[in-house]
Design brief:
This protein is mainly alpha-helical and about 525 residues long. The protein folds into 3 domains: about 60 residues, no CATH class; about 300 residues, Up-down Bundle (Cytochrome Bc1 Complex, Chain C), CATH 1.20.810.10; about 100 residues, Cytochrome c-like domain (Cytochrome Bc1 Complex, Chain D, domain 2, Orthogonal Bundle). About 65% of the residues lie in helices and about 0% in strands. The protein is built from 25 helices and 2 strands. A two-stranded antiparallel sheet has the order 1-2. Helix 9 packs antiparallel against helix 12 and helix 21 packs across helix 25. The longest helix has about 35 residues. The chain is elongated. The N terminus is likely disordered. It binds heme C (HEC). Heme C binds next to helix 22, helix 23 and helix 24.
Length: about 525
């Protein structure tokens, strides 16, 4: 069946070979008007015009007529599925980058702005977040398919190696992207993630500081992760996607497991149309799933990272959960084996697969050793993954804290967007509603300005609202001087009430002067 399609197809697609002197002469001799006439094959003159200049016909032939041993199959759709989601990540990522500012001061506010204010911003961000998970899932399916089919056999070592590089790059994208929103979970998960290498001797600490841009997580970390996520890794991905495809084209698709990897014998079918349609089915499915998730379950954003929070329990995204669980089992001197030797051995075995599993036998049931090891590692990863979630669910203290963190993120999502206010920004913002004359009047009391400075720089307004007007999170403070004289207020800061702690008001170490300034500001008319 496949054989009968091909010759027919070629006749239609190929048309006259490019560079045919007769065709070119004819085209050159014809007056401009005539060149626009439809070509013999039903092509419009515009197409021919373009083909004469670009060789697009040959390119299309190259792209679409790839012969597939044994015909089109759904098993082969994952590679192009990955390419599709990657392109979607580039498009959605570019939109996010229009608003995002990679610095510890602004990252969270800009992501909150995207999520809460920008038209369809939450939808686009969610597509990007779910797209990242989709990349990992489809990459795993692609790896399982090509491994089980033995598609790396028959002079295809470099195809496999370039694929390994691409998989590492996908994981790198997931890791670097996770920090960028700079919310609590991003901050603490990345703190753990970047700390892992420091457990290793000799170069461990250097790797950690290289990733963080110092000993702590901060603006330098964000800019490093941002550059890696937006320029460095995607650049390499484009390069390696090109390499992977070129090598795959050169080696030709391996076909079904019964096909001889060195000397293919099965009849072939061109890539277009049936394989293209199968590939597009996956792309369509991804569009439906990703946009459905993004629409009905928008990706959440938690409160801004607070490095002083000692309660927060870090948890990575699901694709790093098994690794996270694995780390729990290794302590003391064994750490080197657990997080150094064993993962390194698995990674090396994985990369060397085409050099270790060398026979031309492709059927998985005839390759018990390599398929057995592969299955063992895969099942181990799944077991660790499940165990991680079970551990969390079975420890009531942890479960409660995780539920609280979830709740805090939900509450943050419901809050209206709060723009950043720096220095005299509240006055500037109010100037819009007040008369220009009033706005231009200088602050009568320097204490008021000092108090305002404290109030904004300590994020009091995040909970107590602008000018201490009060929010659902914390009570009104304007006019607090009537309630507490400065000594009592200072005492309150030093001995916060249970309600203040319950509302997560940080513990501040203020001086009497600070407190007087705060009161002056809060008592001044706004
Ligand atoms: C994380 C949120 C949060 C932040 C940030 C915060 N507070 Fe509070 N604050 C609270 C909560 C919650 C309460 C207690 C509410 C209650 O008693 O019902 C409170 C109570 C207070 C009270 C006592 C109010 C009263 O009527 O008894 C004062 C005064 C106060 N905060 C001042 C400040 C100042 C000044 C800052 C900044 C330096 C600040 N807070 C930052 C959440 C916050």
């Amino acid at each position: 069946m496949a054989e009968s399609i091909e010759p027919e197809f070629r006749k239609i697609k190929q048309g006259p070979p490019r560079g045919d002197p007769i065709v070119e002469e004819a085209a050159a001799a014809a007056p401009a008007g005539q060149a626009a006439e439809p070509a013999e094959s039903g092509r419009s003159g515009l197409w021919k015009w373009l083909d004469d200049r670009t060789g697009i016909d040959a390119l299309m032939h190259e792209a679409l007529d790839e012969p597939i041993s044994g015909g089109a199959r759904y098993a082969y759709i994952f590679g192009s599925g990955l390419l599709f989601v990657f392109l979607s990540q580039i498009v959605t990522g570019t939109f996010l980058a229009l608003y995002y500012v990679p610095s510890a001061d602004h990252a969270h506010t800009t992501v909150a702005y995207i999520t809460k204010e920008v038209a369809a911003g939450s939808f686009l961000r969610s597509l990007h977040v779910y797209g990242a998970s989709a990349m990992v899932i489809i990459a795993l399916l692609h790896i399982c398919q090509t491994f089980l089919y033995g598609s790396f056999k028959g002079r295809r070592e470099l195809v496999w190696l370039s694929g390994c590089v691409l998989f590492a790059l996908v994981l790198g994208m997931a890791f670097t992207g996770y920090l960028l929103p700079w919310d609590q979970k991003a901050y603490f998960a990345t703190a753990v993630g970047t700390n892992v290498p420091s457990e290793l001797p000799v170069f461990g600490n250097a790797v950690k500081e290289l990733m963080r841009g110092g000993t702590e997580l901060g603006t330098l970390t964000i800019s490093r992760f941002f550059v890696a996520h937006v320029f460095f890794i995607p650049g390499f991905m484009l390069l390696f996607i090109g390499t992977h495809l070129m090598l795959m084209r050169k080696a030709r698709p391996a076909g079904p497991v019964s096909e001889d990897p060195f000397n293919p014998k099965l009849p072939t079918e061109p890539f277009y149309p049936r394989q293209v349609i199968k590939d597009l089915t996956l792309a369509l499915l991804m569009i439906v799933i990703l946009s459905g998730l993004a629409f009905f379950y928008p990706a959440s954003l938690g409160p801004e990272a607070n490095p002083a929070d000692t309660q927060f329990l870090p948890r990575p995204e699901w694709y790093y959960r098994s690794l996270f669980q694995w780390l729990k089992y290794w302590h003391g001197g064994a750490v080197v084996i657990g997080i150094g030797v064993i993962p390194a051995v698995i990674a090396i075995l994985f990369v060397l697969v085409p050099f270790l599993d060398r026979k031309s036998e492709r059927r998985p049931w005839r390759r018990p050793l390599s398929v057995g090891i592969f299955a063992f590692v895969l099942i181990g990863i799944v077991v660790l993954e499940v165990q991680s979630y079970r551990d969390d669910a079975h420890d009531p203290v942890i479960a409660q804290q995780l539920a609280l963190q979830e709740k805090q993120a939900e509450d943050f999502m419901k809050e209206p967007f709060k723009p950043e206010t720096v220095g005299s920004a509240p006055e500037a913002a109010e100037a819009g509603s007040k008369s220009a004359a009033a706005a231009a009047a200088p602050a009568p009391n320097p204490l008021v300005a000092q108090g305002e400075q404290i109030f904004t720089s300590h994020a009091c307004l995040a909970c107590h609202g602008q000018g201490g007007a009060g929010t659902p999170l914390a009570p009104r403070l304007a006019g607090i001087g009537q309630k507490y004289p400065p000594e009592k207020l200072l005492d309150l800061f030093n001995h916060p009430t249970a309600k203040m702690d319950a509302g997560h008001m940080p513990h501040f170490q203020f001086t009497m002067d600070d407190v007087k300034a705060i009161e002056a500001y809060l008592d001044a008319p706004h």
